[in-house]
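thought: user wants a sequence for this fold. calling inverse folding tool.
action: design(structure=
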């Protein structure tokens, strides 16, 4: 079997406006990668682009990476990963190029699974057939008050979620908050209101479940140290990416001061060696790689094993389309050290509207790992086509 083409598919869906600590989102985008073979089997992957123009990722996939693997046997995934990596190492071992390598890697695993007649998690040696998930939401939005956040929380609890994550940190008046560099501070709140938002969600959850808050690295370290006591009193259990992962000294101090709140991170880190360095520095409790950004299934397999070696838990970051979520479920299913995975609850048609069979879950919001060969999903191309921008 030989790879005959590697193509990028760009998708865009206008969504209700929402924001986290740093950015405002008006449309959801996805960059799928389609790898075709001479046997007729094709694979789909997703490169996570963190808001980059999709057209740039398209050029990276089709003009920079494709030539490294066209004509090769798609079953030799680790060989192909190393080829893409080393041919582009000066400009590509991190950033968008690594995101695109991740997307191609996922598509290659999809091909391998389809050819073998097994889901990717079975190919890798499955540990679980269900993955616990937390509700990821609690964004800021135009006109959304604490009451709006409470209604949203009630919806998640009724659905069966035990654990919930909300966004905090969009406080331009807080000194050195990086949101001030973004040029858009719409729907921001005062620091005190963020603490009340955490308290309100915790009150609805009662004594049960884990409550997480995500700052998206907007704050300086001293602000997080200052807030540690408020976070503890408000009933927070997990804090995600409070500052940039590059500030290891800041993170060490934060982790110490935050205990028993667990530190989660860092979705923007790429590659097993970079994750391993951070695990060795002991600057997180829960390791949070992104399958479409940090190196694909091949690299996340290694990051998961490294995490086990450092006695860390793994919770995959997932904020993409159905392809991203399926790949994350497949990989999580073969790790023995997974914590609840991110299940985004914002309206996202790219995740919920373009599959023939939607993702299934039990009454406690554990997601069943899809069992069809490869990623385990069937894309409804009639629904996906109208969303294509290329
Ligand atoms: Mg995050």
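)
observation: tool returned 390 residues.
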């Amino acid at each position: 079997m030989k790879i005959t083409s590697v193509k990028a598919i760009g998708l865009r869906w206008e969504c209700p406006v929402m924001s986290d600590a740093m950015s405002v989102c008006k449309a959801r985008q996805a960059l799928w990668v389609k790898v075709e073979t001479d046997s007729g089997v094709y694979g789909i992957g997703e490169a996570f682009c963190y808001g980059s123009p999709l057209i740039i990722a398209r050029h990276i996939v089709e003009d920079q990476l494709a030539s490294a693997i066209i004509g090769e046997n798609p079953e030799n995934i680790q060989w192909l990963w190393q080829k893409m990596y080393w041919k582009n190492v000066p400009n590509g071992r991190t950033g968008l190029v690594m995101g695109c390598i991740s997307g191609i890697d996922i598509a290659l695993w999809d091909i391998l699974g389809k050819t073998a007649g097994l889901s990717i998690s079975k190919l890798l040696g499955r540990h679980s057939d269900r993955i616990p998930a937390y509700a990821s939401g609690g964004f800021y939005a135009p006109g959304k008050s604490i009451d709006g956040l409470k209604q949203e929380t009630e919806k998640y609890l009724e659905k069966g979620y035990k654990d919930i994550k909300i966004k905090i940190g969009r406080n331009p008046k807080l000194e050195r908050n990086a949101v001030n560099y973004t040029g858009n501070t719409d729907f921001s709140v005062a620091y005190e209101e963020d603490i009340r938002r955490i308290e309100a969600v915790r009150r609805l959850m009662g004594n049960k479940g884990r409550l997480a808050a995500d700052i998206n690295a907007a704050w300086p370290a001293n602000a997080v140290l200052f807030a540690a006591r408020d976070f503890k009193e408000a009933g927070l259990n997990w804090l995600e990416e409070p500052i940039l992962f590059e500030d290891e000294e800041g993170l060490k101090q934060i982790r110490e001061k935050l205990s028993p709140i667990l530190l989660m991170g860092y979705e923007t880190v790429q590659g097993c060696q970079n994750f391993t360095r951070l695990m060795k520095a002991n600057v997180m409790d829960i390791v949070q790689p992104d399958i479409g950004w940090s190196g694909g299934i091949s690299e996340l397999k290694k990051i998961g094993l490294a995490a086990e070696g450092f006695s860390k838990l793994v919770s995959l970051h997932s904020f993409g389309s159905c392809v991203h979520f399926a790949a994350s479920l497949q990989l999580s299913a073969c790790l023995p050290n997974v914590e609840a995975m991110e299940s985004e609850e914002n309206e996202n048609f790219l995740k919920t509207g373009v599959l023939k069979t939607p993702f299934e879950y039990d009454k406690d919001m554990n997601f069943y790992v899809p069992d069809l060969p490869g990623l385990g999903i069937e894309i409804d191309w009639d629904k996906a086509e109208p969303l294509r921008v290329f």
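thought: summarizing for user.
answer: Here is the designed sequence. The mean pLDDT is 98.
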